[in-house]
Amino acid sequence: MVVPLTTSSIRVLVVDDYAPWRRFVSSTLQTQPELEVVAEVSDGLDAIYQSQELQPDLILLDIGLPVLNGIEAARRIREVSPASKILFVSENRSVDVVEAALSTGAGGYVVKSDGASKLLPAVAAVLQGKQFVSVSLTNSDFSEPTKDPAVRITHRHEVAFYADDPSVVNGYACFIESALKSGNAVIVAVTESHRASLVLRLEADGVDVAAAIKQGSCILLDSTETLSRLLVDGTLDPVRCAQVVGDLITGAAKGVKGERARRVVVCGEIAPILVSKGNAEGAIKLEHLWDEITRGYGVDTLCGYLRSPFLSTESGPIFERICAEHSAVHRLGY
C-alpha cells in the first residue's frame, strides 16, 4: 500500500534510456495527483543538465545510461541540485552496484521487475526521508562483484544469421560447450525441433546434458513457451520481461560454481520466433528489451536467426535494425 504523500506538488525527473520504460514510469507516477513529471531524459549528461535547470524534488535514475552511467550522474547531480532526492530504478542486482548507488546519497533502489508493485511505495518512502531497497535485493545471491561498480557491467549481445537448421544447431552447440567448459551457467531457449537435435549433438560431443541440467549449469527452455511468459494480452510487456528474464538469470546463477569469476550466458531464438510469425517489430522490441535487462547482469547472449527471412530486398531495413540492437553481428553463410 502506498504511503500518502503530503507535499501538494512534487516535481519529478525520469531518467532512463528506454522510452517504453520511461512511459511506464511516468504513467505510474501520474496516478498520484501530487506527482508531476517535469521531464524525461535518456542519458546521464542530460540528466545532470536538466537537474541543474529544473531543480526537481525527485529524480528516478537508471544505472545503465548512455554517455555517463547513473552512479556517476548521481554524484554530479548532488553538486548541481543538492536538494533533489534520488531513487535508483534499475534491473542491476549486483550488491556492489547497489551499495555504490546508495553511497551517492540516494534514498533508495528499486529493481525494475518490482516496479509494478513497489515503485510508488519507494517514491513515498524516499520523499519522506526514508530509505527503500527492493526486498529481492536483500535475499538475492546473484551479486558478482565488480572492480569498479560505477562503470556499467560489461556484457555482450551478439547475433548470428545461419544458412539452415543444422547450422543453427552447430552454432548453439559450440556456444554451449564453450560456456560449460569455462564453468559458466548457460540458459538455452530454442524451438522443439532444434532442442532435440541440439541435445543429440552435445551428447555426441561428450557433454553429459542430463548431468548439466541436474547441476543447474544448463537450463534448457522451449522458446515458444518462454515467449508466451513475456506477453501480457498478446503484447510484449517491459515489466513482465524484466521480471521473467531477471528470475531466469538469478536462478541460473545458482548453477555457477567455483572461486573464479564466472557468469551466466544465454543462447536462443525467442525473438526469431516473432520474425517467423511476421512480427518483425515485436522482435526488434524484444531485442531492445533483452539488451536493456541483461546488461545490468553482465550476461552474454547469442541470438540465432535463420537467414532466409532476410533475403528479400524488402527485408533489408528490418535486417539492419535487428543488427543494430546487437553488439556484434555474425553473418554466417552470406
What is the fold's blueprint, element by element?
Layout: E1 10-15, H1 19-29, E2 35-41, H2 44-54, E3 58-61, H3 70-80, E4 85-90, H4 95-102, E5 108-111, H5 115-127, E6 132-133, H6 135-139, E7 156-162, H7 165-181, E8 185-190, H8 192-204, H9 209-215, E9 218-222, H10 223-229, E10 231-232, E11 235-236, H11 238-253, E12 264-268, H12 271-276, H13 280-294, E13 300-306, H14 316-324, E14 328-330
Parallel strand pairs: 1-2, 1-3, 3-4, 4-5, 5-6, 7-13, 7-14, 8-9, 8-12, 12-13
Antiparallel strand pairs: 10-11
Helix pairs in contact: 2-3, 7-8, 11-13
Describe this structure in words.
With 334 residues, the chain is of the alpha/beta class. It is built from 14 helices and 14 strands. The protein folds into two domains: 10-139, 3-Layer(aba) Sandwich (Rossmann fold), CATH 3.40.50.2300; 156-330, 3-Layer(aba) Sandwich (Rossmann fold). The strands form three sheets. Strands 2-1-3-4-5-6 form a six-stranded parallel beta sheet, with helices on both faces. Helix 2 (44-54) packs parallel to helix 3. The N and C termini lie far apart (55 Å).
